[in-house]
Amino acid sequence: MIATEKSTGMTVYQDIFPDTKIKYGEASMNKWALEGSQVANYLATSPTGTATGFGADIIIIDDLIKNSEEAYNANVLQKHIDWFTNTMLSRTEKGFKLIIIMTRWATNDLAGFILENFENVEHINYKAINEDGSALDEDVLSLEDFNFKTKHMDKAIVYANYQQEPIDVQGKLYQNLKTYVEIPKEKVRQRKAYCDTADTGADYLCNIIYDDCKDSAYIVDVIYTKEPMEITEELVAKTYKEYQVNLADIESNNGGRGFARNVERRTKELGNYKTVVKWFHQSGNKQSRILSNSAWVQQNIYFPVDWENKWPEFYKAITTYQKEGKNAHDDGPDALTGVCEKISKGTVQAIKGVAL
Length: 356
What we know:
This protein is an alpha/beta fold and 356 residues long. The protein has a domain of 175 residues: 2-Layer Sandwich (Nucleotidyltransferase, domain 5), CATH 3.30.420.240. 36% of the residues lie in helices and 20% in strands. The strands form three sheets. A seven-stranded mixed beta sheet has the order 6-12-9-8-7-10-11, with helices on both faces. It is elongated. This is Phage terminase large subunit. It comes from Fusobacterium necrophorum. InterPro entries: Gp19_RNaseH-like, Phage_terminase_lsu-like_C.
């Protein structure tokens, strides 16, 4: 119940809002009305709660993410966004205002979604420790207290909880990816492709065309899509012809063999006899492969300088992939790892055959 009667040592509703009164019989903590109102004036709900039958001109959303475990879980973050776009926005009335108060746990949290997709947003960002090393408010959290509390704390949590720097920025797998302006033509051995077909309807097909430069790879083109196979087979085949791919490796797992055969047939129908299509079964553990090859990827794979504009979804999939936690999709990093494995495998074989 909402406390309305004044009491010594206790702040009640009437102390803060002296000109209004809670309606008798409608003073529950999660839903209450004011005297004279025919409808409820306040409703407390959550992403798993209900807002059916309610409209609002002011919506306040406060700290949806409970902990770092949720911050690492892309599925939880997406559910928050779905709840906001599909439920809460439909509850708003003309002239509404939204107030979102939250720790910036992740770049793809609700706050990040709002900042990226909406205009007329006022962003207020307070850090516990200022850029000059002083405390924001010594009375609330002194520098001495901050240092004591965070001395043995996970640094990613320190940055998120106190400095409003998303935890996934600290925990992302690929920290330093390289870019290029021009491909060094003299180093190119072959133009190749690596294709990871979509396992399920929720997965992405990821086809990467790259120039094999013996000890490095330069990304030329990327297809990263959820379109069905009848569309992607044609798209991939046309891309192989357009970019004059010499060798295309296609994973045969989960329907990939049929996909590869159809792509091979279609390439020939398009008059492309240059591309050799090979399919193979990928038996390695996906997560282990991605993690163990991440250093090589960062040191030896080069992306176009504007790749975030060329392939925005692929760019996001790569640059936000987390070392720990539950990633929504791993198709991009998996295909990138495949490129790494094909390049490094070829180098090892060349060394064994002394044909460098």
